[in-house]
Amino acid sequence: MKKNVIYILVIVVALALIAFTLMNNKQENQTKTDIVAQKNASVAVKVDTVKTETSSLNFTANGNFEPFKELDFSAEKPGRVVRVLVEEGDHVRVGQTLAIVRSEQVSAELHAAEAAYQNAATNYKRFENALKTGGVTEQQMDQAKLTLVTAQSRLEQAKVNAGDVNIKATIKGVVNKRYIEPGSVLGAATPMFDIVDVSKLKLRVTVNESQVASLKVGDPVNIKASVLPDRTFSGKITFIAPKSDSSLNFPVEIEISNNPDNALKAGMYGTATFTSSDRESEKILVAPRNAFLGSVSSNQVFVAEDGVAKLTDVTAGRIFGDKVEILDGLDSNELVVVTGQINLQDGSKIDIID
C-alpha cells in the first residue's frame, strides 16, 4: 500500500515539473516574439518640411509709457501751510510758487541771526574807534571782525531758509497729485505735490540679443498706443542697455513727443515697431517649432530618412511664432518629425501618416 502511494506522489511531482517547464518555455518564447515584433514594428508619425523662407527684419516690442520727467515734492522743514496756489491738473513752470508755508522755527532763526549780526556790527564799530586811541589791540580787532563775518554768513543762510518756505516748482509740467491743504501741518519729508512732464514720454521695452544688434541710439521708431489704434506716433531710441537683464533681454528706451492735446498718457500700453533701414527682409532656413524635443532650447529633432527616424542635433536661432530659425544641422527640404516623437529612439522605424 505504501509503495502505491509513493508511486502516485512521484508521478504527480513529475507531471508538475513537466508543466512548469512547458509554461516557462512558453513565456520565454512569447518574450522573444514580442521583442522581435517590437523591433520590426513601425511608429506612426507626422512630418513637416524644413524650408527656406523670406523673413522680415522688422519686429515689435511692448511696454508702458512713462513721463519724460516726474518729481515728488516733499517738505524739507516743519511748518504750517498758509496757502496752496495750484490745483490738480494745473500746468506749472519752473520757479512758480506752489504753496506758502509758515515756519515758526525758521522765523525765530531769522530773528536771532539778525540780532546777532546787529550786535557784531556794533561791537566791530566800537572796536574800530577804540583802536585809533589804543584802547584795544590788533588781535582784539581781528577777533571782532571774524565775529562780524560769521554773523553775516549766518544771517544770509537764515534768509535763504526763510525764502524756502515758499515752495517753488523745479520742473515744468502738470500737477498730477496734491497732498496738502491750507492749514496742513508739515513734518520732514511730508508729501506735498506730484508733478509730471508729459510734453514728452518715454516707452521702455526689451529686445533679445539678435534684435538689439540691429539697433542704435537715434534710430526712428513708430509707436502705437493700445487705446488709440488709428494713430501713429514718432519716436527715437535714446538709450540701449549695454548689459542684458536676468531674462537675457536688453532694455531699450524710446522718446516720444506728445501731441498738443497730450493724447498719450503715462501708464498707457504701447507698441514699438522697429524697422531696418538697410534691409527689409532676408532668406532664412526655418523648421516647425513642434519638431523640437521638449523645447527649442533642447536643439534636437528627429529627421525622417528612408523610413527611419534619426536623432539630429541642430542650432536654433530666432523664434517666429510657430517656426524656428535653423542656423546649423538641417538642410532645406529635409523632413522632420512633428508628432509621435515620444515613441521614437534614434534609428526607430517610422510610418509617415497624413
From TrEMBL:
Domain CusB-like beta-barrel: 203-276
GO molecular function: efflux transmembrane transporter activity
Tagged with keyword Cytoplasm: no
Gene3D superfamilies given in the database record: 2.40.30.170, 2.40.420.20, 2.40.50.100
Coiled coil (residue ranges): 110-161
All copies of domain CzcB-like barrel-sandwich hybrid, residue ranges: 76-197
Domain of life (superkingdom): Bacteria
SUPFAM superfamilies: HlyD-like secretion proteins
Domain YknX-like C-terminal permuted SH3-like residue range list: 287-351
Gene Ontology CC annotations of this record: efflux pump complex
Keyword presence, Transmembrane helix: yes
InterPro entries: Beta-barrel_RND_2, BSH_CzcB-like, RND_pump_MFP, YknX-like_C
TM spans (from-to): 6-23
Family indicated by similarity: Belongs to the membrane fusion protein (MFP) (TC 8.A.1) family.
Name by which UniProt lists this protein: Efflux RND transporter periplasmic adaptor subunit
Lineage: Bacteria, Pseudomonadati, Bacteroidota, Flavobacteriia, Flavobacteriales
